[in-house]
Design a protein that fits this description.
Length: 152
């Protein structure tokens, strides 16, 4: 007689338990995403990390200094008058600063959506049964775990 093994339900756990599980027991943690992906918490985590890193990084960048050479080329080419250059530099530096901050906030989430889509396509080609939500949860938690270590 062989002892029967019963599959024990995988504990869903909290956001923090799942995040820790990504580091120490990824297989079990990722399996738990099949029944309950729980997407909101890792999305909020990625947005917070992206916002903090984006703010810290882009607050130190002088966008006017980055943009000035391009505007000077436009002045030399006659596309902008020399008197307008400082205003154009200031305006574009402001736009660049805020768009970079917005991309810091949502860029990780957008990238996660794309990567999970690629994973879904690959799983379809391989004939695997995966939901997009569970693949997205795996991707979000993985990027969050990597982001914490990379920025920590």
């Amino acid at each position: 007689m062989t002892p029967e093994t019963t599959a024990e339900p995988i504990e869903q756990g909290s956001f923090l338990n799942r995040l820790i599980g990504v580091y120490f027991s990824p297989g079990e943690t990722f399996k738990s995403f099949a029944s309950n992906p729980g997407l909101l918490a890792p999305i909020i985590g990625l947005v917070l990390i992206g916002g903090i890193v984006g703010y810290l990084f882009f607050s130190k960048v002088d966008f006017a200094q980055v943009i000035a050479p391009q505007i000077e080329q436009m002045v030399e080419a006659g596309r902008i008058q020399k008197e307008q250059a400082p205003q154009v530099i200031a305006m574009q530096a402001n736009i660049a600063k805020y768009s970079a901050l917005v991309m810091g906030l949502i860029g990780n989430v957008l990238f996660s959506l794309i990567v999970a889509g690629v994973f879904k396509l690959v799983s379809l080609v391989l004939g695997k049964e995966n939901t997009y939500k569970s693949l997205l949860a795996v991707t979000l938690y993985t990027f969050l775990a990597i982001g914490i270590i990379a920025e920590g």
